[in-house]
Amino acid sequence: MSLYRVEKDLLGQREIPQEAYYGIHTLRAKENFAVSGMPVHRDLIWALALVKKAAALANMEVGLLDPRIARAIALAAEELAEGQWCDQIVVNAFQGGAGTSTNMNVNEVIANRAIEILGGTRGDYTLVNPLDHVNLGQSTNDVYPTALRVASIKLARELSQAMATLQGALQAKEKEFAAVLKVGRTEMQDAVPITLGQEFSAYAEAVARDWWRLYKSEERLRQVNLGGTAVGTGLNASRRYIYRVIEILRELTGFGLARAENTVEATQNADVFAEVSGFVKAAAVNLAKIAGDLRLLSSGPRAGLGEIKLPEVQAGSSIMPGKVNPVIPEMVTQVAYQVMASDMAIDMAAASGQLELNAFLPLIAHNLLQSLEVMAKASRLLAEKCVRGIQADEARCRQLLEASHGVITAFVPYLGYEKATEVVLRAVETRRPVTELLVEEGLFTKDEVEAILRPQELTTPGVAGVRYLKQTRALRGDGDEK
Known about the structure:
Elements: E1 4-9, E2 12-17, H1 24-32, H2 42-61, H3 67-81, H4 100-117, H5 130-134, H6 140-176, E3 181-186, E4 189-195, H7 196-221, E5 223-224, H8 239-253, E6 258-259, H9 263-268, H10 271-297, E7 308-309, H11 327-351, H12 361-385, E8 391-392, H13 394-403, H14 412-415, H15 417-430, H16 434-440, H17 446-452, H18 455-458, H19 466-472
Parallel strand pairs: 5-6
Antiparallel strand pairs: 1-2, 3-4, 7-8
Helix pairs in contact: 2-3, 2-4, 2-6, 2-8, 3-4, 4-6, 6-7, 6-12, 7-10, 10-11, 10-12, 11-12
């Protein structure tokens, strides 16, 4: 038996490995675009397979495709969607032709598998043809963008769920650390006191905002141009097929898909992907900020801030015994930076469409789907391997707070800014806590200082300790509550 079969196209003939499910179009693309070693994203293959299954069933229902052929195509497409034959999708993620090579790779794999299902031999396209049967009523230009939208919805849902998980983990820490008073910091310098719980509440709120944006992004992706064929006009696609194929695809995916009101516009423009990528980038920005804060707050632990302890997940050094690094936040930071860079690539690609089509959809697909996927994984890992195991070092927080001059701000309403500044300067000169000097100089009693420095007083709106001091003496200067 020959190890090869011969297939032909408009450029001539080529030998195809007999065991391959792909054909000549795929072989040429594999050779032409051997550039990165990065495959087409698995979820784009899944979405394309479902589009092909929907198209076969719709063409069968409207009488355009022999039921026997249609059922074989549908079964082959279902197998591909479930993960079989994915090793036969061999084209590179980066390719010319607006995704035509990916579409043809899928067409050929489904056709050859359908031929097998019908009892034929791979390459016998008289039984099932990749173009005349699998691609019937379709163009890469409506199939590929539709599949990209479907894959994006799937991954956006997964990222949204991951962000919700992270939000829950942060909120749990917000509650756990509600009474841990510490130094707040602005521009890397000591500022007024805050609770560790309040810091985590800010993280949780930012992630909640990201969760909501990503959840709502599905609305931007639901309108598809399937049925628009080459330029959105629907040439060579039956009207009955156009409406039925989207209904079937909606049933197969469970997503609320609808036909775009203007399929010419939906074929031309890729701004929806830039918009969704922008939501993912915003989430990446917040994750990078949170990860950076966790690294800083846990730094040391002896010679840094050391206010929190991160879970120890692996040894940190090949030369320094006992060293443990904040590897999960570091991984998350790198993911975030990659997503930000990918967003720039998506923006440039989306802006580079010309007239009736954007030729750079493969770049958009690769970066958007990868960003959605890695952000979901990073968010879950941050929640599970880091946030949930964070511990507060309350003694360290108290030590740094007592040594900080930032607490003087709470006494400004009583002393005035200039007098408070004099106290701080003496504290710096004598290397003593400002609270000791306030008592020593007779400005406040020890009980009054303690009343002003209560966590509830320091971390809620109003003048700290004003109610207590009103009961003990008249307020000085501008001490009325503000």
